[in-house]
Amino acid sequence: MKLIFIRGKTIARLVVIGSLCAFAFGTVFYGKAANAGINPSPEPSATPDRSAAARQTATATPRKYSDFPHSVTAHQMECSKCHKFPSDNWKTVRPAGDAFEDITDYPKHESCIGCHRAQFFNGRPPTICSICHTNPGPRNSNRHPFPNPRELFDKSPKGQRAPDSDFAISFPHDKHIEMVTGDPDPTYKSAKGEESCTACHRTYQPAGNSPDEYTTKPPADLGDSFWLKKGTFKTTPIGHTLCFTCHTADSGITPTPTNCNTCHKLRVPGPSPDFDPNKASKMITSDRIMLLAWRHRDSSGTFRHEFSVHSDLECATCHTVAKMNTLDAATKKVPIASCAMCHASATLADGGALNYEADKRQKDAKFECVKCHIAFGKKPMPPSHVTALKEATGD
To answer: Cα separation of 190 and 202, whole Å?
Structure first.
């Protein structure tokens, strides 16, 4: 009986040891299998590829999985594969009186784990979880605000540091000019002929009668140097609120709210903007709307819409609205001719800003044109400016 008892204990011990070994082996094997399930390819930039060279550089960069670039080929699928319309929280993310069916939350885990199972179990916490979650962990399910509504996202820590969206918006101005008539805000006085424009575009953060005309306090020794003023930019709709007043599932007006890719197009490279991020950081504190508007300016970085002479002009004086294609920067660019009618004079003595800076540049090749430009002022004067001057002076 003693021998049998000893054998029983021995057998029991062997079973325990064997189980532990099997568990350890299984853990190692599973870890390897999970990592082998998807062989992570290098992560491209969060913005669309700029060129073959950019793609090659991106390929050489290991993935960090801290963001979700829509430009990756594997991510370019039907929007409904990940985004469900409407989101579960659409009734609560906006005030009750303003709520409407919309996509207002991140995709659920099943949209990601099919391809990224390995990343879901890699790291403490896994980096991929930080795309949506503020502090990833089993006891904390809090998430960053979804980029829509922008009003909430822009105020969040993630929104403050977020780059431009992967998408540009395709908006046919020519189809909306006659549809959108009448000023929707009777208290807003618009210039003649721009009633349709004011439905979507308003002067942003106007100074009005405020004695403080700058966005932030300028340095005491500013002199004639540029410092960003209020009322410089015009607004553009940043969400679906205005669009969905007409484009609803019941109206029959296409595109409907579920036709995401009709309006949202992957952003393509555009011309360099007249923008200096170092200067912008001194003049803008936490206003993402203003920052993005300035970051996309490819004509005059200093142009202020609220300036008295500018505000009296119709939009069509500078913008060829009917031919404007929001996906083609060339159709949105303001031509120098629009500026020259006021800022290029017959003689230098007549005070034309273009005349003055062209004269300075001719005398000193290092002179920086700052009356209209932020970054472009250091570059050679383009042929269009030379032509505008010749037309003004008759040379």
So the answer is: 9
Are 93 and 42 contacting, i.e. CB atoms less than 8 angstroms apart?
Answer: no
Q: Which neighbouring-strand residues pair with 126?
A: 123
Q: How many residues does the chain have?
A: 395
**How many domains does the structure of the chain reveal?**
2
Banded model confidence at residue 292, pLDDT cuts 50, 70, 90: very high
Tokens at residue 104, please?
A: 């207002």
In whole angstroms, give the CA distance from residue 285 to residue 270.
Answer: 26
Cα(75)–Cα(86) distance, rounded to whole angstroms?
A: 21
Taking phi over 0 as left and psi of -120 to 50 as alpha, with beta for the rest, 201 belongs to beta
Tokens 């960090």 map to which residue? Answer: 64
- Contact assessment for residue 69 and residue 77, using Cβ atoms and an 8 Å cutoff: no
- Residue 23: the pLDDT is 40
Among residues 44, 41, 40, 47, the alpha carbon closest in space to that of 120 is found at: 40
User: What is the amino acid identity at position 211?
Assistant: P
- Is 326 within a domain? yes
- DSSP per-residue letters across 144-163: PPPSSSHHHHTTSHHHHH--
* Residue 240 in tokens: 């679906």
Tell me the whole-structure pTM to 2 decimals: 0.78
Name which of 136-145, 179-188, 384-393 the model is least confident about: 179-188
Q: 23 lies in a domain? A: no
- Spatial distance between the Cα atoms of 380 and 174, rounded to a whole number of angstroms: 35
Runs of H (alpha helix) within the chain: 2-37, 52-59, 110-120, 150-153, 157-161, 173-176, 260-263, 277-283, 288-295, 308-311, 329-332, 336-343, 353-363, 383-393
Tokens coding 29 = 């094997």
Residue-range definition of the domain harbouring residue 58:
52-161
Tell me: do 106 and 229 sit in the same domain. Answer: no
